[in-house]
Design goal:
By secondary structure, the protein is mainly beta. About 5% of the residues lie in helices and about 45% in strands. It starts with a helix and ends with a strand.
Length: about 425
C-alpha cells in the first residue's frame, strides 16, 4: 500500500489577449468638404471557425481529441485526417488476479504501453472510412492486467476498428467492417473514457463486432441497427440496435439492445486461445444471450452525470448448459475543476442469478466497485491517476483474487500519461 500511495501522489503532482488600434489626424480640417463623403470604417474580417476534433474516436467527458489533427490531400480519395495516441500506464495492486492471457499471476505492480495507435479517416463525401491500427490494452476493474501486445494478438488484432461508410445524405448512412459496439456507456480504449480502468458492466458487453450497420438521424432522434457477430464470434447471427433522444438542453436518453438469433457457435477462425479452439475475445455464455441498456447523459454546469442500467440474459451456456442473468447499474460523473483539470468517478453494482458463471466470480455472485480518477490535459498531453476498489459477495473460491483464488476484494492504483496527436 506504500507504493500505491506514492503512485497516487506522483499522479496528482502531474496535474493573449491581442490588442489593435488606429488613428487618423488632419491638421488642416476636422470636417471633410461637403462634396466628399465621410470615410466608412472597413468591416472587421469574420473570425475563422475554431477547429473541431475528428469524429472518430468518440471521447468521454474528461479528455478531448486533438482538434488540430493532420490532414492531407490523397488525390482520388479526397482529404484524409490522421490522428493517433501514445500512452503508457503503471500500476500497483494487492490480491493480484490470474492473467489468462499469459497464464500467470499479475505481479503487485508493473508498467506497459496502454495505447499505441494511429487512425486514418475520411469524413466527407459519399464514401467515407475509418482505419485504426496499433496496440492497446483493456485494464478492467476485477480482471488481471493483460499486456498490450498480448491483448492485441488475442482479441481484435492490429487493426481493431476498420470500416467503410456510405453517406447518401445527412439523415442516412451505412457502415460495413469491424465496428465499435452499440452497447454500453463506456468505450473500448482507455483514453476514450472518464476512467483508466473499465468497469464491471463494461466487462459484460461486446466491444468490437464485425458486421453491417444502418444509421439514421433527424432532429432530436438518432438510431442505429446492426447485424453482426456479437462478441467477435465470427458467427453473424446477432442483431443490435439503439435509439437516442436529445433534449433541448443537450441531455440524451438512450435505449440499446443486442441479442443472438441462433446458438450455433463454431470453432474460432481469427482470435483464438493457444489451443486454437475457443476465441479469447468471445465469452461463450454472453455471446449466446441478450443484453439491454438504458443510458442517460446529463450536463449541469461543471458537472456531467451518466447513470445507466444493464440487464443480461443467457438461456444456454454452450460449455456447461447452464442459464443465468446479470443485472447492474452504474453512475459515471465528472467535475471540471479548471479547463485543464477534472475529477471523474464511477460507482457500480452487478448481481447475478442462475448456474452460469456470468460475472466470472462464480455462479450467483455479486460485486460492487468504486473508481476515482483526477485528470490533467493541456493541448495534446494528458496525465491522470486512479484509485479503484472492488468487493465481491457470494463469490466462489477458485474464481476470486490472490494466489489461492480466495480473496474477495482488490485495491488498485493506476497512472496513465501520453499524447493524443
Amino acid at each position: 500500500m506504500t507504493n500505491l500511495k506514492l503512485l497516487l501522489c506522483a499522479g496528482s503532482v502531474a496535474m493573449g489577449l491581442a490588442f489593435a488600434g488606429s488613428a487618423f489626424a488632419d491638421d488642416q480640417t476636422t470636417t471633410p468638404p461637403a462634396s466628399t463623403p465621410a470615410a466608412t470604417p472597413a468591416a472587421a474580417p469574420a473570425a475563422a471557425p475554431a477547429p473541431t476534433p475528428p469524429p472518430y474516436p468518440s471521447m468521454g467527458p474528461t479528455l478531448s481529441n486533438n482538434a488540430n489533427s493532420s490532414t492531407f490531400d490523397a488525390g482520388p480519395l479526397g482529404k484524409l485526417t490522421v490522428n493517433g495516441v501514445i500512452t503508457g500506464v503503471a500500476y500497483v495492486q494487492d490480491n493480484a488476479a490470474f492473467d489468462f492471457g499469459d497464464f500467470k499471476f499479475n505481479k503487485d505492480g508493473g508498467y506497459d504501453i496502454s495505447n499505441g495507435m494511429a487512425t486514418v479517416q475520411k469524413t466527407d463525401g459519399l464514401f467515407q472510412f475509418v482505419v485504426q491500427a496499433g496496440v492497446y490494452s483493456f485494464p478492467t476493474v476485477g480482471n488481471a492486467y493483460i499486456k498490450a501486445t498480448t491483448q492485441t494478438a488475442l482479441t481484435f488484432g492490429y487493426a481493431p476498428v476498420a470500416y467503410a461508410k456510405i453517406v447518401p445524405n445527412s439523415a442516412f448512412s451505412f457502415e460495413v467492417g469491424q465496428l465499435p459496439t452499440l452497447i454500453g456507456a463506456e468505450l473500448p480504449f482507455t483514453y476514450e473514457n472518464a476512467n483508466i480502468e473499465r468497469g464491471l458492466l463494461w466487462n459484460q458487453e461486446p466491444l468490437i463486432s464485425r458486421g453491417v450497420q444502418f444509421n439514421y438521424s433527424q432532429g432530436p432522434i438518432s438510431a442505429s441497427l446492426s447485424v453482426n457477430d456479437g462478441y467477435y464470434s465470427n458467427e453473424f447471427t446477432t442483431v443490435s440496435g439503439l435509439i437516442t433522444y436529445t433534449f433541448k438542453n443537450s441531455d440524451t436518453l438512450t435505449f440499446a439492445a443486442s441479442g443472438n438469433a441462433s446458438q450455433n457457435y463454431k470453432t474460432c477462425t481469427f482470435a483464438c486461445t493457444t489451443d486454437g479452439t475457443i476465441s479469447f475475445a468471445t465469452p461463450l455464455a454472453q455471446n449466446e444471450g441478450d443484453i439491454f441498456n438504458v443510458i442517460f447523459n446529463h450536463t449541469m454546469g461543471k458537472w456531467t452525470f451518466t447513470p445507466y442500467f444493464q440487464y443480461n440474459s443467457v438461456p444456454n451456456d454452450l460449455v456447461t448448459g447452464a442459464s443465468g442473468q446479470v443485472w447492474g447499474g452504474a453512475l459515471i460523473a465528472k467535475y471540471s475543476v479548471t479547463p485543464e483539470v477534472s475529477i471523474a468517478g464511477r460507482v457500480e453494482y452487478e448481481g447475478s442469478s442462475g448456474l452460469a458463471n456470468l460475472t466470472f466470480f462464480g455462479p450467483g455472485s455479486n460485486a460492487w466497485s468504486l473508481t476515482v480518477t483526477p485528470t490533467y490535459q493541456k493541448g495534446i498531453f494528458f496525465a491522470r491517476a486512479e484509485l479503484s476498489y472492488i468487493s465481491v459477495g457470494s463469490g466462489t473460491v477458485g474464481d476470486l483474487f490472490g494466489n489461492n483464488f480466495d480473496k474477495s476484494n482488490q485495491f488498485r492504483g493506476f497512472f496513465e500519461t501520453g499524447v493524443m496527436f
